[in-house]
Amino acid sequence: MKTIKFIFLSFALVFLTLSVQAQRGARMGYLDMEYILESVPEYQEASTQLAGKVQRWKKDLDKMNDEIEQMKLNLSNEGVLLTKELIEEREEEIKILEDEMLKYQQDRFGPNGDLDIQRRQLVQPIQDQVFNIVQEIAEAKKYDFIFDKSADVVMLFASKRNDISEQVLRSINRAARREEAKSRKDKKEIEKREELSLEEENEVTEREISAEERKNERERLLEERKRVRDSIRAANKIEFEEKRRLLIEERQRRKDSLSKIRNGEDPPVEGDGEGNGGDGNGGGLK
Questions:
Q1: Which of 198, 106, 122 is nearest to 160 (CA)?
Q2: Helix (H, G, I), strand (E, B) or coil at 145
Q3: What are phi and psi of 269, to 5 degrees?
Q4: Which of 69, 200, 237, 239 has a 20 to 30 Å separation from 179 between CA atoms?
Q5: Is there a domain that residue 226 lies in?
Q6: What are the φ and ψ backbone dihedral angles of 171, each rounded to 5 degrees?
Q7: Dihedral of alpha carbons 47, 48, 54, 56, sign
Q8: 238 within a domain of the structure (yes/no)
């Protein structure tokens, strides 16, 4: 009960302070830490790797639990056949395995476990970067308060114009581009981009995206034309090969026919048969 009263008084004090500052013309802004984290590629890649580890840890726990449950089942089925000493020995073995499983679970998922530590290690560098950027923005834009929209502070209304998430994310991306820049030309290009306002950079980004889309469309059309040409060439090649095959078969048939004529019987010669020579029919004329 005392804890609830303390929390209530703390919130009341915070909102009272905000009300007083608002009456004096205080300037407030906010950011969405979850949105920023989701927009940082390095964080997403590390989160995916951590999720893979969590799945492996859960599988290990499931395997350990299945082994323990099977041992309990075996003991239940064979208990009537075992001596008291053997039963106690198996129960002790099961207890040891249960303690090991509980320790493994605490080491991986408990407070200050591997999951908790690696999450902090994953988020901490980005949080530190965001904190430094927020300090710079607050000083440059004269903000009195900047809140995290994704935290436990309840925000009943927040105007979009006071959202500095994009400014923070823009600064993070700038730092990443500066680290990735290898040539002097790349660094100059980055410095030139950093001189632009948020609206100007958004316009440049939109033009770059549009140009990239047009480039991709041209490449797609060229690829489609190449595919059509290759298809036509393949069809022509098949047609040519078929004509060539038929021509070779026709030549072979003619060759085989001539070979049969040469090796077989010659056609009969005219005048070389009965009735062409003299016989008794015409020789008896006087």
A1: 198
A2: strand
A3: -90, 140
A4: 200
A5: no
A6: -65, -40
A7: negative
A8: no
DSSP state of 121: H
Residue 214 lies in a domain: no
CB atoms within 10 A of CB 56: 10
- Specify the pLDDT at position 93: 95
The domain total for the chain is 1
* Closest listed residue to residue 169, CA positions, set 126, 204, 212: 126
Q: Which residue range forms the structural domain that includes residue 130?
A: 26-194
**Residue in this structure with the two tokens 């997403």, named with its chain if needed:** 44
Q: Give the pLDDT score at 269.
A: 47
Average pLDDT per 10 consecutive residues for the chain, totaling 286 residues: 44 48 66 86 87 94 95 90 90 95 94 91 86 85 82 64 80 75 59 58 69 82 85 87 87 82 59 46 42
Q: Tell me which residue of 71, 73, 61 sits closest to 95, measured CA to CA.
A: 71
Tokens 């008084």, residue located: 9
DSSP state of 268: P
- Strand runs (DSSP E) across the chain, as ranges? 28-31, 145-148
Asked whether the beta carbons of 134 and 30 are under 8 A apart, the reply is: no
Token pair for 133: 């950027």
Give strand pairing partners of 148.
31
Integer Cα distance of 104 and 64 in angstroms:
10
Q: Quick check: is 47 in a domain?
A: yes
pLDDT of residue 109: 94
Checking 129-137 for CB contacts under 8 A at 24+ apart, the result is 129/172, 129/175, 130/31, 130/33, 130/36, 130/168, 130/172, 133/167, 133/168, 133/171, 133/172, 134/31, 134/164, 134/168, 136/171, 137/29, 137/164, 137/167, 137/168
- What confidence score (pLDDT) does residue 273 get? 44
